[in-house]
Amino acid sequence: MINPDARMSAKVFADDIEKAPMRDGFGSGAVEAGKADSRVVVLCADVSESTRAEQFQKEFPDRFVEMGVAEQNMAGVAAGMAAAGKIPFIASYAVFSPGRNYEHIRTTIALNQMSVKICGMHAGVSVGPDGATHQMLEDIGMMRMLPNMTVIAPCDAEEARKAIVAAATTDGPIYIRFGRAVTPTFTTSETPFEIGKALLLWDSPVGGGTLKIAILSTGSLGYTALCAARTLAEEGIECVVLHVPTVKPLDTEAVLDVAKRAGRVVTIEEHQVAGGFGSAITEFLSEQYPVPIHRLGIQDQFGQSGQPDELLAHYGLDVLHIADAIRAFIHI
Amino acid sequence: MALTEEQLLTLEKRAKSIRETIVQMLVAAGSGHTAGSLGMADIFAAFYFHILNHDPKWPEWEERDRLVLSNGHICPVLYATMAHAGYFPIEECLSLRKFGSRLQGHPDRLVLPGVETTSGPLGEGLSQAAGIAYAFRMDDKMWDIGSPTSDVGLPISKHGRRIYCVMSDGEQEEGSTWEAAMFIGKNKLSNLTAIIDRNNIQIGGMTEDIMPLEPLADKYRAFNWHVLEVDGHNITEFIQAIDEAKTIDEKPTLIIAHTIPGKGVPEIENDYHWHGKVPTDEEGERFLKEIRHD
């Protein structure tokens, strides 16, 4: 059953649920953060329309910095602005930032401990037709390995907005990951969000041997995980869904709790299974409370062109394939 | 401001003491970068004892000028100069590169107050200096309304804190240096002055053999910079160039400082093998004599 404490949209499973690209939350969140604190600035690498940085640009033209197609310089300039007391958000496609400019982020932002917020857009295969070059699938891994770095992958536009607002008031380097596709906005302004906290989306009244699986998701696949849980529950397979927007630092208490209750965990992410969210969960549970884990995600391969839905289906990350994978996993 | 004869002599004496400290600390460390550190002693003496508006007893002072050392590997000259200027005891220089030391192999701003940025990886300092300069100009706008504005609508100010970025010539091979140069040129960040230590060597040989940089001045001019070339061991000339940069409102200034790597120790001058090598105890004794004799 839906966890009522998650305060999700009343239309969560309705056909006419509102949909929006997650980056809309970047645009509105940045404006909100900018109104609250004049130190907030936004730097963008020639993609202000598609990242929605233009919303901030319109509201605060003096605090928007056009960087051109130069992501390495963008990271360093942001670090310098942070050193001078600003709170910079840098926006580009994840494949270029933090992809292209990784070492610049490592040295000038993470090691240097500068309060820069790195917003990586268009992550995952659901970027769609642009193909493999533009489908960033390694960013969570790259960023969570860096000391001092917080890593957040919101599930929809509303949570993305909250993540931006929270990032602006949280000191230190933060990476925030955004998908490109238009996805259901299933959380609401009432849905709790706190950096470092996971959120139970789907709960089961039962425990003991009856609860079969804990589904842990991050980022854009939160809604898919929820739909898969509903499908399984209708078949009598009891499950819980824990949405984990903050990949680092992990909400270890919440992860441990669902692992203990279900005794079996599946992780879902639009990212390589090596090094990403599933790895983070596996590393933690294998040391603290070993349970069987199955990681769903991209299996050591690059993406390709296609429509978001057909790509997610191809890589086994739609409701149908996820439900199938879980059925097979719980019968092992 | 122009130097008096007496000021010049004092600065030259400072540079000599800094060179001695550099040799002593590199011998004690057993690893590090000798040539570039010795080559930049005159310019660092000029910065910390004449040019910079700073307070060694109050490194966090908001109104200070910023010196960003991009090529962090020449940090022995930074540390030695900071110590002589009073940021920390000169004896601490002997802890260079040792476990637990504040004088890390490459500068770490979190452990040593007065270091503006953690640096070492080449091609990153100019971007950070640009960010500081851009942010300061945004802030200056608050009290500078009414001043002429540049094409991008930001005020052109000759007041306030100045930002200096010291780079090596080798790091001009990093693409990101040119991203930063383009950004600074576009935004006419005239509160920023960059210095290139043009010593013609890099770790693997001579710059013009490894990857030719010339015509370096023309390249920066094409990126909308005001470019000056000076003898990096002529303190008067260097300070004149810094003063000229302060009068240029419409462009950032680059000072190409022609230096001799290993300057002060004739037996290693201009030898690229000394880029990343340090003197032994015996060599150190000899080098100190050469520096004192010079």
TrEMBL record, chain B:
One of the Pfam families matching this protein, by short name: Transketolase_N
Claim: Nucleotide-binding is one of the keywords in the record: no
Cofactors named for this entry: thiamine diphosphate
Keyword Secreted attributed: no
TM helices/strands, residue ranges: none
Domain Transketolase N-terminal per the UniProt entry, residue ranges: 14-282
InterPro entries: THDP-binding, Transketolase_N
Family: Belongs to the transketolase family.
PANTHER family found in the cross-reference section: TRANSKETOLASE N-TERMINAL SECTION-RELATED
Name of the featured protein: Transketolase
Organism expressing this protein natively: Candidatus Kaiserbacteria bacterium RIFOXYD1_FULL_47_14
